[in-house]
Q: What sequence folds into this?
């Protein structure tokens, strides 16, 4: 199973979005991630407009609420025709199952593909200290992430978002029949920005990532199209 290199379109509004994607040749069929800022600012029409260009979409809204509310929200999201969506695994098994059910119902009603449901385990902004003192977890970070990934898998999620450096351990403990989608990707020699634990596309492939999420190294590059092609080639041609 090999998924795409997903370009994270972390821009503020429609104008910035189209300024960026208009640089790409029409036959580049990108998979792009859009998140809360763009979706809350522009609404679901922005999703339809990106789909109209023939792109696949990772809609990263990280739902976390009671199961019934998440199911209703996911039913609406499922109607859009996006490829990947996210929930917080910390919402629990009933919520994750409800999310999946909502996606199935919405996508079937609209006659579109059912999005893959990806779970966020612990956010990378959570430290060991916060995990222990604020989330009151008995487990350390690695065991917590593995436990949440297992929970997500048995609750019908299709995969998790994780650091590329944790994929090997996750594959061993959670299995190969699950998606491991990894941000924190940097070309060699590129500044890490605020990411601390990074890997190149080739390293991520060797660790076992199923798909990559890349933001600044592409969207802030002097030539985003060239940066995208260089990183995609490295990802597609890497040894696995
Ligand atoms: O610019 P950069 O390549 O660091 O962007 C990575 C994208 O992946 C951003 O949209 C960021 O919010 C997201 N992300 C992340 N780490 C996570 C989850 C999501 O960097 N654990």
A:
């Amino acid at each position: 199973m090999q998924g795409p290199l997903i370009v994270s379109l972390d821009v503020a509004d429609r104008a910035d979005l189209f300024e960026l994607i208009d640089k790409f040749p029409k036959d580049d069929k990108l998979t792009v991630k859009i998140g809360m800022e763009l979706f809350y600012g522009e609404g679901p029409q922005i999703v339809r407009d990106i789909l109209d260009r023939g792109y696949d979409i990772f809609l990263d809204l990280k739902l976390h609420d009671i199961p019934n509310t998440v199911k209703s929200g996911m039913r609406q999201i499922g109607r859009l025709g996006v490829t990947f969506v996210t929930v917080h695994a910390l919402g629990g098994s009933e919520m994750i199952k409800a999310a999946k059910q909502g996606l199935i119902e919405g996508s079937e009603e609209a006659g579109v593909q059912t999005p893959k449901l990806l779970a966020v385990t612990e956010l990378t902004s959570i430290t060991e200290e916060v995990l222990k003192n604020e989330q009151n977890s008995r487990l350390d970070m690695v065991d917590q992430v593995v436990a949440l990934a297992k929970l997500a898998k048995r609750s019908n999620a299709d995969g998790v978002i994780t650091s590329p450096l944790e994929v090997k351990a996750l594959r061993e403990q959670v299995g190969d029949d699950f998606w491991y989608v990894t941000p924190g990707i940097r070309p060699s020699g590129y500044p890490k920005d605020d990411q601390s634990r990074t890997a190149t596309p080739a390293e991520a492939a060797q660790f076992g990532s199923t798909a990559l999420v890349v933001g600044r190294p592409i969207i802030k590059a002097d030539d985003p199209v060239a940066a995208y092609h260089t990183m995609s080639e490295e990802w597609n041609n890497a040894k696995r």
The longest strand covers residues 56-63.
